[in-house]
Write a structure and sequence with these properties.
This protein is α+β, with helices and mostly antiparallel strands. Helix content is 38%, strand content 20%. Helix 2 runs antiparallel to helix 6 and helix 6 packs parallel to helix 11. It binds histidyl-adenosine monophosphate.
Length: 438
C-alpha cells in the first residue's frame, strides 16, 4: 500500500516547496548571529528598522524593472479575493521608496530591513525562490559621503562575520545627462556587431541595451567585451561624484576594483553601483550583496526629488561563504545549564525559572524521564553545567553541580539557595578571556 493511500495525504505536498527551505536550530543560531551583527552595525551608523508588507501592488515593482528578468519573468503575482493585482516582494528597494513616498518622513531617511524575497528562478545552491536579504537605504541625500558610508556599512558587516575573501566591485551608471548618449552609442554598437544573434538579442537591445551587458549568453561575450563603456560617457558632475566616492573609500582603507561592465539587475540604478563578490563561492552565485544609487525612483513613484542609495545582502549566500571560508562552525551551545530532576514535583520548574530570570540560559527534561534519560539529554544539550536535584542532597537543602566539560567527572554540592549565584559566577569566569586572569 502506498503511503498516500494509507494516510490519505500525499507526502510530496507536505514538504517545503521547490526552491525554499526551512531554517532549523542549530543552523538558525548562525542566522541570529548574522542578523544581530547587522542590526548592531546599522544602529551604530544611525539607521532605524523599516518593516514593509511582504506583498505590494504589482505596479510598485513594475516601476523598478520593466526590462528586467526579476520583474518580467520571475515575480510571484496573484490576484487577491478583492480583485487586486499583487506581487510578493522580489526586491527590497521599491517597497521602501513606496513607504517613503506614502509617509514623507524627514530626510535623510536612513533605514535597514530584514525581509524574505521571492523570485521564480531555477533553484541551485545559493539561488532560491525564497531568499532573505539584509538591506539598508538612505533616502534624500546626494552627497558622495553617503555612498561611502553605505558601502562601509556593508563592508564592515562582512568583516564582523570574519569573511576575508570578499571583493568590492565599483562602477558608475552616470546621471540623467550622461546616460542617454551612452545608451544610444551602446544600442548602435550592439545592433551592428550582434546583427547575427537573433530575435532575443535584438529585442533586449531595443528595450534596454544595458541589460545585455550583464547577459550570461556565451555567444555574445566577445561583442559585449568590446562594447563602449559607460565611464567614457560620464558628465563632469558624474565624474566628480564617482571620484569623491573612490577617495572616501580609500580614506577608510576600503579597497575596491573598478568594474565598468557592472550594470546590476534593476532599471532604477543611477551613478554609483557596487557589488560584493566572494571568491569562496562558485562564479554563478558569488554576489553576496549589491546595490547602488537610485536618484529618480521616488519621483517615478510620485514623490519629491529624492536622491538615494542602498544595498541588499543575501543571508543564505553570506552563510554559504562563511562555510566555504571558515568551515562549518560547530553548533553553538544552546544553553548554559541543564537541570536534572530526581525529585519530581515542581523543583525543576522553580530552579530553571530562577536561573532564566537571573540571565542564565537553562533547560530541563519533561515528562518524568528516568535519571539516565535526563543525563543523556543534559549531555546532548551542549550545556556547560548540569544541576542535579537529588534526594540525598535535598536532605540538607543542597543540589549537585556537575561540570559537563571537565575531562574528569567533577561534581560538587552547593546549597540550594546559593546555586543561582554560584552558576552565574562560574559562567562569568569561563567567559572571561584568559589574559584577564590574575
Ligand atoms: P540584488 O542584487 O538583486 O539587489 O540582490 C541582493 C543580494 O541578494 C544578492 O547580492 C544576493 O546576495 C542575494 N540574492 C539575490 N537573489 C537571490 C536568490 N535567488 N537566492 C539567494 N540569494 C539571492 C537587490 O535586490 C536590490 N534591491 C539591492 C539594493 C538595495 N539596491 C539598492 N538598494
Amino acid at each position: 500500500m502506498s503511503e498516500e493511500s494509507r494516510s490519505g495525504v500525499d507526502p510530496a505536498v507536505f514538504r517545503a516547496p521547490v526552491g525554499t527551505h526551512d531554517v532549523l536550530p542549530p543552523e538558525s543560531d548562525r542566522w541570529v548571529r548574522a542578523v544581530a551583527a547587522f542590526a548592531d552595525r546599522a544602529r551604530r551608523f544611525g539607521f532605524g528598522l523599516v518593516v514593509t508588507p511582504v506583498f505590494e501592488h504589482v505596479e510598485v515593482f513594475q516601476r523598478v524593472g520593466a526590462s528586467t528578468d526579476v520583474v518580467r519573468k520571475e515575480m510571484y503575482e496573484f490576484e487577491d479575493k478583492g480583485g487586486r493585482r499583487l506581487a510578493l516582494r522580489p526586491e527590497g528597494t521599491a517597497p521602501v521608496v513606496r513607504a517613503y513616498v506614502q509617509h514623507r518622513p524627514a530626510v535623510p531617511w536612513k533605514v535597514w530591513y530584514l525581509a524574505p524575497h521571492f523570485r521564480y528562478e531555477r533553484p541551485q545552491k545559493g539561488r532560491y525562490r525564497q531568499h532573505w536579504q539584509l538591506g539598508a537605504e538612505v533616502l534624500g541625500v546626494d552627497d558622495p559621503e553617503v555612498d561611502v558610508e553605505v558601502i562601509a556599512l556593508a563592508h564592515g558587516f562582512y568583516r564582523d562575520l570574519g569573511l576575508g575573501r570578499v571583493r568590492l566591485l565599483l562602477n558608475s551608471m552616470g546621471d540623467a545627462q550622461s546616460r542617454p548618449a551612452f545608451v544610444a552609442a551602446l544600442r548602435g554598437y550592439l545592433l551592428t556587431h550582434g546583427a547575427d544573434f537573433g530575435d532575443d538579442f535584438r529585442a533586449r537591445v531595443e528595450q534596454n541595451p544595458l541589460r545585455v551587458l550583464d547577459a550570461k549568453n556565451e555567444e555574445w561575450q566577445d561583442v559585449i567585451e568590446r562594447a563602449p563603456q559607460l565611464t567614457e560617457y560620464l558628465s563632469d558632475d558624474a565624474v566628480a561624484h564617482f571620484e569623491a566616492v573612490q577617495q572616501g573609500l580609500t580614506s577608510l582603507g576600503i579597497t575596491y576594483e573598478l568594474a565598468p561592465r557592472l550594470v546590476r539587475g534593476f532599471d532604477y540604478y543611477t551613478a554609483t553601483t557596487f557589488e560584493f563578490v566572494s571568491d569562496a563561492l562558485d562564479a554563478a552565485q558569488n554576489a553576496v550583496g549589491g546595490g547602488g544609487r537610485y536618484d529618480q525612483l521616488a519621483e517615478d513613484m510620485g514623490g519629491p526629488p529624492t536622491p538615494s542609495i542602498g544595498f541588499g545582502i543575501g543571508i543564505e549566500r553570506v552563510l554559504i561563504a562563511c562555510d566555504a571560508e571558515l568551515g562549518e562552525g560547530a553548533a553553538a551551545p544552546r544553553v548554559d545549564v541543564f537541570v536534572v530532576d530526581a525529585l519530581g514535583g515542581g523543583a525543576a520548574t522553580v530552579l530553571v525559572a530562577e536561573l532564566r530570570e537571573a540571565g542564565v540560559s537553562a533547560d530541563r527534561a519533561y515528562g518524568g524521564r528516568s535519571m539516565k534519560a535526563q543525563s543523556k539529554l543534559a549531555d546532548r544539550s551542549g550545556a556547560r553545567y548540569a544541576v542535579i536535584l537529588g534526594a540525598r542532597e535535598a536532605e540538607h537543602d543542597a543540589v549537585a553541580v556537575k561540570d559537563l566539560r571537565a575531562s574528569e567527572a567533577t561534581q560538587g554540592e552547593v546549597p540550594r539557595r546559593e546555586v543561582v549565584g554560584y552558576l552565574r559566577q562560574a559562567l562569568e569566569r569561563d567567559r572571561r578571556p584568559k589574559s584577564y586572569e590574575i
